[in-house]
Amino acid sequence: MKVCIYPGTFDPITHGHLDVLERACRIFDRVIIAIAENRGKDPFFSAEKRLQLVNENLERFPTAKAMVFQGLLIDFAKEQGASVIIRGLRAVSDFEFEFQMANMNRHLGPDIETILVMTKEGYNYTSSTLVKQVAEYGADVSEFVPENVYQALKERVANL
Predict the structure, then answer these.
(1) How far apart are CA 86 and CA 150, in angstroms?
(2) Tens-place pLDDT, residues 26-36
(3) How far is CA 47 from CA 8, 19, 23, 73, 115, in A?
(4) Are the C-beta atoms of 34 and 5 separated by less than 8 Å?
(5) What percent of the residues of the chain are helix, what percent strand, and what percent coil, each to the nearest 5?
(6) Is the peptide bond before 12 cis (omega within 30 degrees of 0)?
(7) Is the Cβ–Cβ distance between 25 and 61 less than 8 Å?
(8) 5 contacts 76 by C-beta, under 8 angstroms
(9) What is the mean pLDDT of the chain?
């Protein structure tokens, strides 16, 4: 069984993330969405809330499951028996960071490959950070995120 890890903070999950997930599910037997706790990034949503928001979108992905992890991604991948890490690329500007991460992960876990996947056209300028920033100013971000995330963003912004 080929297990793939799809890591990120998913703060929040977007349609671009779901696009990469859909393609990963077509390639791998099992996909684990690895939600990084990552307190250092000062997340907009708690890890538990991000897990909930992701899980609410997994119905159409029966071979995927979401988990929160702490520590090194490569250690988590080994614990889960994964042979591949998949990452989405929106633009050329993402490549340098992803390239560095892939090389470090290869050094730490030479048996685990990294695959970089280009997001579908239309999602290449969308990031969780940008979605949160414009949502904080009351902009309609509903076309970039699933409905449950849109509602959670509205609620969170209203309570700031």
Answers:
(1) 25
(2) 999 999 999 99
(3) 11, 21, 24, 16, 25
(4) yes
(5) 45, 20, 35
(6) yes
(7) yes
(8) yes
(9) 92
pLDDT in tens, 61-111: 999 999 999 999 999 999 999 999 999 887 777 788 888 999 999 999 999
The pair of structure tokens assigned to 91 is 């633009």
Q: Which amino acid is at 78?
A: K
Reported pTM: 0.93
Amino acid at position 138, single letter: G
Q: Are 153 and 132 in contact (CB under 8 A)?
A: yes
d(Cα 4, Cα 25) in Å, to the nearest integer? 9
Residues annotated catalytic, as ranges: 17, 41, 90, 128
CA atoms within 13 A on the CB side of 33: 31
List domains and CATH numbers for the chain: 3-158 (3.40.50.620)
Q: Cα separations (Å) of 124 from 7, 25, 53, 156?
A: 18, 20, 21, 25
